[in-house]
Amino acid sequence: MNKSENILSLPNYTVYELTLLQKSAALAFGGLMLFGVGYLFYHHWWLSFLLVPFSYYAPKLLREYLKQRRRATLNLHFKQMLFSLSSSLSAGRSVENAFREAVQDLLMLDPEGSSDMISELNIICARLEYSQPVEEALHDFSRRAGMEDIERFADVFTVCKRTGGDLVEVVRRTSTVISEKLDIQQEIAVTVAQKKFESKALLVSPLVMVMFMSLTAGDYMQPMYTGIGILISTIALAALFLCYLWISKIMDIPL
Q1: Residues near 127 by beta carbon (within 8 Å), at least 6 away in sequence
Q2: What does the DSSP 8-state code read for residue 18?
Q3: What is the mean pLDDT of the chain?
Q4: Taking Cα atoms as reference points, which of 23, 151, 13 lies closest to residue 69?
């Protein structure tokens, strides 16, 4: 690619930058949620406002969620790219033409061409136009992706190109192995999905119960909003937050 290209302008898939609108929406939503939970447990405006500053972490949670979703999509499209690459090489196309053909194949799945994998293939093809070796472009992509499968493919591809190995067979076997790995990850995700829903229901159920009791038996709940009841409510709220952290840690399955 052109030497004047600024490498910092290329996407880095190990981080995710929120827009100002996304940050503002996350802060507003987090603040409202925390205020609502605080008022539900304390029934005091000033105590409820004390929880609002913790909405500072809401953009971080949103950023992590969007980053993981983006990486999962990139991983899936990378598998589809490998199948296309394998088919093109098997048909006798050169490596350069195989990457160009992969762009067209992915455009059939995403006509708008908005996926990250299509953008990366366009970057690789542009670098090939400037006579940059394809292995260098792949290694740059693997560094920015920060994903084990892409890094291994770039390493295997480089070794195969330098040693004159059977590139078609290497790409085919690599695509098969990565595909099997992704299938296993998807099976695990489906298995865990129900448990994630159950865990969320368990976290919400105490809030629903407190709300129900406050609406139907206000006099019975009144002692919880004065004196020692505030301390008990604080302990209960802290325990609920610790449960959330524990469940999130258990259910976190990295790619």
Answers
A1: 1, 134, 136, 137
A2: P
A3: 84
A4: 13
**pLDDT confidence of residue 234:** 87
CA 189 vs CA 121, 131, 234, 253: distances in Å: 28, 41, 34, 8
Cα(27)–Cα(52) distance, integer angstroms: 9
End-to-end alpha-carbon separation of the chain, Å?
30
pLDDT of residue 31: 92
- The residue written with tokens 């598998």 in the block is 79
Contacts of 14 by beta carbon, 8 Å cutoff, 6+ apart: 144, 145, 146
> Is the pLDDT score of 1 beyond 80?
no
Let me know how many helices (H) and strands (E) the chain has, helices first: 10, 0
Q: In angstroms, rounded to a whole number, what is the distance separating the alpha carbons of residues 153 and 148?
A: 9
Burial of 197 (0-12, 13-18, 19+ CB in 10 A): exposed
For the entire predicted model, the pTM comes to 0.80
| Contact present, 79 and 179 (Cβ < 8 Å) | yes
Q: b vs e for 147-183, b when ≥16 Cβ sit within 10 Å of the residue's Cβ?
A: bebbbebbebbbebbeeeeebbebbbebbeebeeebe
Residue matched to tokens 């002692």: 223
Report which residue type is found at 195: K
Three-class secondary structure of residue 94 per DSSP: coil
Of the chain, the percentage scoring pLDDT greater than 90 comes to: 16
